[in-house]
Amino acid sequence: MVKTIKISTALLFCLLNSQNLQAKDWSFEVWLDKQNIGTHSFSLEQNKLLSRADFKVKVLFINAYRYQHQADETWQGQCLSQLSARTTENKVLTEVKGQLQGGQFAVESNGRKQTLPACVMTFAYWNPEILKQTRLLNPQNAEYLDVTVTDQGLKDIVVKGQTVSAHQYYLLGKFENKEKLKITLWYDQQQQWVALESITPEGYKIVYKLI
Questions:
Q1: What global pTM score does this model have?
Q2: pLDDT at 3
Q3: CA 133 to CA 116: how far, in whole Å?
Q4: Residues 6+ apart with CB under 8 A from 157
Q5: pLDDT per residue as tens digits for the range 113-160
Q6: How far is it, in rounded angstroms, from Cα 63 to Cα 13?
Q7: What's the whole-number mean pLDDT along residues 176-196?
Q8: CA dist., res. 41 & res. 162, Å (int)
């Protein structure tokens, strides 16, 4: 059963807040249920974003699932201008390329091409503007998902060993009317992204813990 896990990272990825050009870094331990399966880091400097993920799922000390993802993105304000992403799931490679061209955002993934609106956002968890969007691009597989966001109010959660009061949001992503992503996000009182949980299509829980 573990071999069928599909970890969607949209968990993955990537937007510049044009009002804050300071370099920022986020590093997370990633857990699948009770197993630490790896890390996911994000580095944002000016209009450049680097995302790197490396997961290994073991069953009885055997590597049952391997996931590696990297995405490099360039932004103009709140809009994506260039994307280059590479994802390997159990030796299956998916590459996504995107470029703003002539008032449209052109995307190609493993030979499949599509044209999106000029201003496209990916899953930019660290920027609260993501919560206002109705569509988001998944840099892992180039799916342009319909999204709905539900404000679930303030919750107490543990971040780096400390209990903090954080605002909780639930994000549901659908592609061609099929549920693809179920993500819960938390932001602290300064609107900084501090935690994430996701439920895979198979019912596994993925947890991001800030380190």
A1: 0.85
A2: 40
A3: 15
A4: 163, 164, 166, 168, 186, 194, 195
A5: 999 999 999 998 878 898 999 999 999 999 999 999 999 999 999 999
A6: 26
A7: 95
A8: 21
Q: How many residues does the chain have?
A: 211
Q: How far is CA 26 from each of CA 18, 39, 125, rounded to the nearest angstrom?
A: 18, 11, 11
144, 137 in Cβ contact below 8 A?
yes
Q: Which amino acid is at 169?
A: Y
What DSSP assignment string belongs to the chain? -GGG----TTS------TT--S-EEEEEEEEETTEEEEEEEEEEETTEEEEEEEEEEEETTEEEEEEEEEEEEEEETTEEEEEEEEEEETTEEEEEEEEEETTEEEEEETTEEEEE-SS--B--TTSGGGGG-SEEE-TTT--EEEEEEEEEEEEEEEETTEEEEEEEEEEEEEETTEEEEEEEEEE-TT--EEEEEEE-TTS-EEEEEE-
- CA dist 19 and 23 (Å) reads 12
- pLDDT of the residue at 23: 65
Alpha carbons 205 and 202: distance in angstroms, whole number: 9
Amino acid 180 reads K
Token output for 74: 């360039």
Q: Taking 70 as the threshold, does the pLDDT of residue 19 lie above it?
A: no
Q: Which H/E stretch holds residue 70?
A: strand 62-76
> In Å, how far from its chain's centre is CA 110?
20
Count other Cβ atoms within 10 Å, centred on residue 10. Answer: 24
